């Protein structure tokens, strides 16, 4: 798929130039001023968390729907903008969150980076690989702090699972995302959402990379109940991990409510089952998560922006590896063949 970025990586460099010359593109205040691109549910969640930090203020919120931007901005005493270019041109920002649908990624990140601003991007990174690779390269070139919203990495139970698995490599991984169709108009269109694996199950794939390791081969098979022009409603996939572990992934959006979302792993003498809220050990002992992952992912990014010691567990380049895996599964399902990944 063709990159959604403009061909000239620096075409929008003037966007922040005037603000930079006025000395307002970065703020030296002890309060970190954050701009948010997108005003949907995920953006609102981040805004709520960020507004709870005493050293952060929401400076502006941009959305192509000005009414939605105004509604969220009014909740946080922020300025609303009808587009991200206006938000960036206003200057005075220390960091930007990009919380847009999958099809809208590319130009917002490009323009944020042209302002030399730290960037937080919500998953999935894009619909294609080239767009994400260009963004990753530019972040690295500019040596900017970055983070991606894989907040499952900050679950307290993930750390406990890693401790339990110490010296016991995982030999089998079973991932699930069995759910309903999300209530957004674009989600069933694969050219806008990327499909369920890319848009939702990428969380499970990211967790599998943490607990099991890198994947070298995938073979995904969609169910034969697809409506023309819509995403696959059910998919089963086999995964081969670099250290020899075997994996399975099952996804479905046929249901009326979230049924099962998470990852099971089996090691010598140990079975763990993780969801976003709990860890089940050997089918008997339940460990509840502390519920702070969505706060930690924002706090650590802000710490990085402020130049403090920061535990950013998924910078953009790391998220790119998970994105590459999700796209490989989507391609395997579309082409009806196994896809090999670089180790």
Please describe the structure with a list of short key phrases separated by commas or semicolons.
343 residues; alpha/beta; nine-stranded mixed sheet; 11 helices; disordered N terminus
Concise synopsis of the structure shown:
With 343 residues, this protein is α/β, with parallel strands linked by helices.
Beta-strand portion reads 15-25%
- Averaging pLDDT over every residue, what do you get? 93
The H/E string reads HEHEHEHEHEHEHEHHEEEEEEEHHE
Fraction of residues in helix = 25-40%
Number of strands: 15
Looking across the biggest beta sheet, what order are the strands in? 14-13-12-11-7-10-9-8-15
Would you write up a description of this structure?
With 343 residues, the chain is an alpha/beta fold. It has helices at residues 17-21, 41-51, 66-75, 84-90, 107-114, 129-142, 156-164, 190-193, 196-211, 293-305, 316-335; strands at 32-37, 56-62, 79-81, 95-98, 119-121, 146-148, 170-178, 215-222, 234-241, 246-252, 260-267, 270-274, 278-281, 285-288, 339-340. The strands form 2 sheets. A 9-stranded mixed β-sheet has the order 14-13-12-11-7-10-9-8-15. The longest helix has 20 residues, at 316-335.
What order do the helices and strands come in, and which of them pair?
Layout: H1 17-21, E1 32-37, H2 41-51, E2 56-62, H3 66-75, E3 79-81, H4 84-90, E4 95-98, H5 107-114, E5 119-121, H6 129-142, E6 146-148, H7 156-164, E7 170-178, H8 190-193, H9 196-211, E8 215-222, E9 234-241, E10 246-252, E11 260-267, E12 270-274, E13 278-281, E14 285-288, H10 293-305, H11 316-335, E15 339-340
Parallel strand pairs: 1-2, 1-4, 2-3, 4-5, 5-6, 7-10
Antiparallel strand pairs: 7-11, 8-9, 8-15, 9-10, 11-12, 12-13, 13-14
